[in-house]
Amino acid sequence: MPDPLAAALATPGLPWLMLAIGVAGIVRGFSGFGTALIFVPVAGIFLAPQVVVGVIMLTGLVSSSALLPRAWGHADRREVGLLAFAALLTVPLGLWLITRLDPVLIRWCVAMIATVTLAALVSGWRFSGRVNRPQLAGIGALSGGIGGLTGLTGPVVILFYLAGQSAAQTVRANTILFLAALDVVIVANLLVQGAVNWAIVALALVLAIPYITTSLIGQALFDPRHERLYRWVAYAVIALAVLSGLPIWSNGG
């Protein structure tokens, strides 16, 4: 067995990581969101923050590749380019902070960001104004910084960018394209820093298998008549993941 694969299979808590990513796949399949909000808090129990970020980004690259061709055709690529450029500038800051801050503090940051996002989703809050170009740049920059620090690349986009006045199809395509671009930016920075090794790549590939499988299952289960039920199930699963990942349950908290 190749050493990287052996190291991946020996990862502490691997069954829990596979369960978390599998559940995240089902939720994403029938609701369209929630992967990082479910996986990152649980992964933080077993993995160092840099490893969590590397794994979720690499897994995201593998899983989103199937969505990119269609998204490319429907996206406003100039708009996505602005978001990605702004994120490119702030990702290094987030990755720098991840090496300076205490891992327990980062886990608390994950819990706080996920909780605020979940509360906003449950309440139905959305930014109601029109998003202009400077605001788009700010959204991209904030997404890059938070994504680099925690691996949570989606919350800022979910809460602000999705509230824009663009057609739903364009917004969805833009979001898919931007998050894929952000995955690439973060992984590239990690590679430059030497923070991604073959064991992390192998772990991401191991986790991608249940993730892609359960995403397809979730997609097959989706029935538009029960969309509201699916959303509440997603909210409940995210809440459970956030609660289970709180540092108070471990000696480090």
Automatic annotation (TrEMBL):
Signal peptide region: none
Family recorded in the similarity comment:
Belongs to the 4-toluene sulfonate uptake permease (TSUP) (TC 2.A.102) family.
Keyword Cell membrane part of the UniProt annotation = yes
- According to the record, the segments passing through the membrane are 6-27, 36-60, 80-98, 105-127, 139-163, 175-192, 198-222, 229-249
Q: Where in the cell is it found?
A: Cell membrane
- What is the first-listed, main subcellular location in coarse terms? membrane
> What's a Pfam family in this record?
TauE
The entry's protein name is Probable membrane transporter protein
How does it sit in the bilayer? Multi-pass membrane protein
Q: Does this entry carry the keyword Transmembrane?
A: yes
Keyword annotations from UniProtKB, A to Z: Cell membrane, Membrane, Transmembrane, Transmembrane helix, Transport
